[in-house]
Amino acid sequence: xxxxxxxxxxxxxxxxxxxxxxxxxxxxxxxxxxxxxxxxxxxxxxxxxxxxxxxxxxxxxxxxxxxxxxxxxxxxxxxxxxxxxxxxxxxxxxxxxxxxxxxxxxxxxxxxxxxxxxxxxxxxxxxxxxxxxxxxxxxxxxxxxxxxxxxxxxxxxxxxxxxxxxxxxxxxxxxxxxxxxxxxxxxxxxxxxxxxxxxxxxxxxxxxxxxxxxxxxxxxxxxxxxxxxxxxxxxxxxxxxxxxxxxxxxxxxxxxxxxxxxxxxxxxxxxxxxxxxxxxxxxxxxxxxxxxxxxxxxxxxxxxxxxxxxxxxxxxxxxxxxxxxxxxxxxxxxxxxxxxxxxxxxxxxxxxxxxxxxxxxxxxxxxxxxxxxxxx
RNA sequence: GUGGGUAUGGCGCAGUUGGUUAGCGCGCCAGAUUGUGGCUCUGGAGGCCGAGGGUUCAAAUCCCUCUAUCCACC
Length: 376
Hints:
Layout: E1 2-8, E2 11-18, E3 21-25, E4 27-31, H1 43-48, E5 54-57, H2 58-63, H3 67-73, H4 76-79, E6 86-89, H5 92-97, E7 102-104, E8 109-112, E9 119-122, H6 124-134, E10 138-140, H7 152-177, E11 188-193, H8 199-211, E12 216-219, H9 228-238, E13 248-250, H10 256-264, E14 269-271, H11 274-280, E15 283-286, E16 289-292, H12 319-327, H13 331-358, H14 361-373
Parallel strand pairs: 4-5, 4-14, 5-6, 6-10, 10-11, 11-12, 12-13, 13-14
Antiparallel strand pairs: 1-2, 2-3, 7-8, 8-9, 15-16
Helix pairs in contact: 3-6, 6-7, 7-8, 10-14, 11-13, 12-13
This protein binds one RNA strand through helix 5 and helix 11.
């Protein structure tokens, strides 16, 4: 079901066939943590901005509305009215991002809910059960995303536990996919490689999880504070130890430049909160770099966010108007910014796929990176 | 008209018994943010403290006059 269509250097143009449709890679998954894109972007809007996969979060959906409710309604895709693939993150990242609200034990993680403080236990089995209830297309293994920097000792203990958790995830997934009551019996499971910036730990871990024969693999624990060079180095050093006939997902990354570099090193899947979060905060991504629309210089600017962009927002609204909406804290401003940014990212991925097919990825990448450095 | 209150950056306010370069919130101007808590954080600009005079080594702070404004009463 995962096919390599062509390669250009290490850059891969592939497709992943799933029960919910075929994903063309490299792909940027659009983050909709609680079953909704932030910024009032509807799943109807997603059709026009070329979204292929929506990423939801296990922990967040478990806390609210509850995965039992999602299952009762018929799964997350029916719930949010989105018939294409959905990937659920396992809650592993919340081990990192909600560090003050949790305790890690061998059996799993004890959280205090960020909503009402109540105790929540999530281990590998629970995470997979929740993801099965949500009925996403792809489930992620429950891991620990270790902090950066971390000592060698901490990192070794952490990835050993993550490996043990992965075995439990796989076992639970096999059990659930065999039950008649399961909504998506073809749910895929991706394992997550960890090891921080320690090359040898990364490689050792990559070998171990490759042996466990999962449907796909992810590089986790990157873009958590290390430099870009360290991140690119880890990708380069680790990729040879992950199977080439399986998709690879670089979790939580990143900027358009990060994505261009990672694709060149063979990565298929990406996701990042940047286009949505930075959009809400006034940053528009354009072919000429990142623009802070809140800056005074755009007060009277009647040009679109990006003159080379053909998204519905750029066809209609001016920088000055969008700036005004954000200043006035109008919801429409957030929506227009996020819509444009997601369209920009999705279009970037389309161009990347096209460049790989044409065998001119390197030239495309360099030209693109030059453009990002230009001043508006 | 009488009595009382208040005048401090664009707005709203702190400024202790007078004591070094007058603070705070919002706003403004910038910057961060990488498997999302519609957040949060970090910088920066901007004030002859209503006007004039006096007391004092020293006044946003005490005294006098004026101006503006608010409240109550006639």
